[in-house]
Amino acid sequence: MPSATQSISDQSAIDYYKAFVNFIKIQSKLYADNVFVRYQVNKGFKTLTYSQVDHITTNLACEWAKQVEGSGVISYISDRSIDYLLTMIALMKLRFTLLAVSPRNSEAAIVNLLEKTNSKVFFTSPKYEAIAKSASVKIEGVSLIVVNPFDIEALLNQPLNDRQNEFIDTSFTEKDLDKPALIIHSSGSTNYPKPIYLTNRYILNICGVFKLCKEQNPHLDLVKQSDVFLICVPLFHGFGFACTFSVVYAGASVVFLEKLPPSQNEITYALKQNNCTLMAAPPLIFEQMVPHLKETNEFSAAQNLKFAIFAGASLKRETGDWLQKHNINIRNVYGTTEMSVGMFANFDPRCKNWYSLRPIWNDRSGQSYFIFEDTDEGYKHLYIRSDSPTLALNVSNREDGGFNSNDLFLEDSEHPGYFNYVGRRDDILVMENGEKTNPVPMENTIRQSTIVKQVAVLGHARQCTAALIEIDMDYAMSYGPEEIISLVYEAVEDTNKECPSHSTILPQMVKILPFDKTLPSTDKGTVIRKKAEAMYAGLVEKMYKDFLEGPVYNSSSDSSSWSAKQTESFLVKSIADVLHMPEFAFNDHERSVFDLGLNSLTAIQLRNVIAKQFKNVPQNFLFQNSTISSMRQALLSDSQIDAAELVEMRYQQAQELAKSYLERANKDFSVTKNDYEAEKKEKVVLLTGATGSLGSFMLRDLLKDATVKKVYCLIRDKETELHTRLVNAFTSRHLDSSLLETERIEVLPMRLTEQYLGLTKERYEQLKEEITIVQHCAWLLDFNMTIDHYDKECIAPFYNLLKFAYREVNPMHVHFISSVSASAALGSEIEEKPLPFDSHATMPMGYAQSKFVCEIFLGYLMKEKNFPCYIERVGQVSGDSESGVWNTSEQYPLLFVAGSLMRKMPKLSTVIDWIPVDYASSAIVDIMLRTAHFSANIESSVYHIVNPHHENWTDILNAMKSCGMKFDVVEPVEWVDTLSKDDTNPAFRLMSFYEDSFKKDFKMPIWQTKKTCKLAPILAKSPVVDSKLFSKYLNHWQSVGFYKPSN
């Protein structure tokens, strides 16, 4: 008999049992008369004790022994039932490896599983005889055995087979621990299902998860002999298997329903009839439970549960909170077949944290087997150590032998040490503009509607998200078509309220599937997104095409005769409808609609509305005409402005805007007095953009410099999230986040447009006196936006920051991160000096022009007002030289990975002056600190942050090849053409960008660095991108799943 001191924590219990079937045998003797199974028959429940289950399964094993003799792997397909449980135990007693086949598999998938596992015996229930037979005949040597429904009463009356010792080997050694006993396959979300081999060690551990939890939390009431566990999950799933056999450690019992998934009425009946104290189910069942409980008001059965656990997908926060509020102890559990049940929520019923999770498996020194590593996106990626006792056989996908889960988490700021599941790496939709959308919580919210049975949110490599909706016909029969559409739109609107603006699902991007169509789902109720998109590819493409290309002009429209007033009224109504705002909000016709909430997504929607009434409305219409007045003027104009004329118009706007800021600066700022050497204040820095790549490294370098007394960081976010966002920015770039654990740093919300920068007057004045250096690194990067938009979003707020930095005596030293694009059209070589007052010096885009405007008035303040303002013109920044972290959404990382996949790289004439971000940061911080006590001097105000050591594009290609990448060098046209044919390529979302870039014959100039290198010598030491540095980039991209070496 097992000792009470044997535990899961130190693996002594595992060493004692040695094998799953030995565990069943020992516990069946220990708890012989305890009820093991409560199974449904017609409208009632019958029971089997532990000894009865052991008796029946021993006889069944003896009966089948001769038929399966010599088999390595035995396969079994059936629904979850009492028959399944008995068959599973019986076959495993024969000591062969059992493949549990999900009935949801296609015939082709079943054939593939049988072939992969070399299974030669296939057991099936009569229900699946046809598909099992069809699959088995396609493989030579596979025998089919049909298991008819058991007459359990007759089986109980059979005497124990007196030849059991001949048929069943009951001797076990330590070697059995690492032998495969069970195969559970993946869901086959993207391809054929993958068989995952589970050893006896693995199985004994997952059956002991609640015992382990009790060992770690002795005060908790978890699973004991008197408990009854209702499990609404199949036995051919890891979660269902673990829950079912977890009762065996305690001698408790488990309830088997007639069918899965059950209705809410069937669940309530089972809970009451069996006096259930525990429950496990997919989250979808708990989502459906809420409206059922509200309708019936029958809470007693659910409230009798000590805990109700879910796994396999996320549960909507509102659902869990509601259940908690009504005394139903819902708890989250996380695991995968490859690594077992591995994380639990806090099971203490007094704790309201039902959702976030902590790892439960530790080694004997107390170190977790579950490791969280940082990602570029700021998430935590979970991997499992190679020595974990819960790791399945041969699933390693890391060089160290461990297992990358590809699951992403965020640490719960309210519950340190606990983590919230975000989604799969391949769940995250990377939009065309580089923004990221997590579709999982959006789908959870939409699925809350009773009218929605299933939903798939799409949008990877697209400009916007879309939703495919499968209607629940049980509810739809009570509604008319218009009511169904209205309910679906309400559900979509609910998720839009919770998701980021770039993830918003517009009404035009919601497609309700025909009632006879379904969305593919896993057994856990999770939609198989990629398969859904592939199944409805034509429908999805048409939806996007119709939306993005817009409607055909309505020739019956009489807008050609509209007056200016009629046109403006139409525009006001259209904008109000799109933004869900009252019409009076748009009384100012000179104000940019982007200031009032329009974004790149709703701009498409609004453009389409306008295009129905007016001819020849270009896709970028709203970016070029962002006020109601300019829209009206453009729409009623007799002639269209050609591209060249429009470019010149934008140049003139930039010129006029710069002129207007000079006029303002002349009035707003008086000449300052510089006497920094006499004052010699300690260096206190105000930094914006600290969560960006360059900003993070600058913050790191400032904190590592002992001469910097303090750094204030202005960050855009909720005040409660500011520090967390900063920590995430550091950890995702492998920077030392312990540097942030100091009083030398303080984080403040960034509100540059508000009075006193959103601070109290007293706080504003205190900082105005204390701060000595301002570094403004934060800036919008959107090449679609015009100079008008940049004025509102960036330039005007920066001007307010300059007012803050101004003092009549010794104003703060202001540093501005400009861009080489602001001077790229000046000539073949650019000097380190202020720009001429000519906007044609810039590249023809709003971003570059906005930097030009700022450079102009900063130069004016330096020269005319004695205000020390410094400009750091930054070029192409690459990943850092230590860890190789380079943002995977940028053009060059995408180009490299695309080239690897296509085995083609474009032939370019680009001169490479890329600078690693850590060297760029070091140079800028050097300039900031070395000029900290300088007086204003216009001749020493401009610096170029580019690599002084130039390379050719061929040097980059050679570095790639030295790192083992294989490709042909082709003309850019061919490269773009190849990319255009593969929308699964991660670079596909930048197709139009590459197409435009490669078409232009614009040769970038050389930016001089002599002055910069003299003041910041670190710049001269910047490495070029050679094979050594490029290999670091590849290693990082590979570690985050962005790059996979081609064979």
TrEMBL record:
UniProt keyword terms in alphabetical order: Coiled coil, Phosphopantetheine, Phosphoprotein
Gene3D superfamilies: ACP-like, N-terminal domain of ligase-like, NAD(P)-binding Rossmann-like Domain
Coiled coil: 644-682
InterPro entries to which the protein is assigned, alphabetical: ACP-like_sf, Adenylate-forming_Reductase, AMP-dep_synth/lig_dom, ANL_N_sf, FAR_NAD-bd, NAD(P)-bd_dom_sf, PKS_PP-bd, PP-bd_ACP
Boundaries of every Carrier domain copy: 562-639
GO molecular function terms listed in the Swiss-Prot or TrEMBL record: phosphopantetheine binding
Pfam families: AMP-binding, AMP-binding_C_3, NAD_binding_4, PP-binding
Protein name from the UniProt record: Carrier domain-containing protein
Organism: Rhizopus delemar (strain RA 99-880 / ATCC MYA-4621 / FGSC 9543 / NRRL 43880)
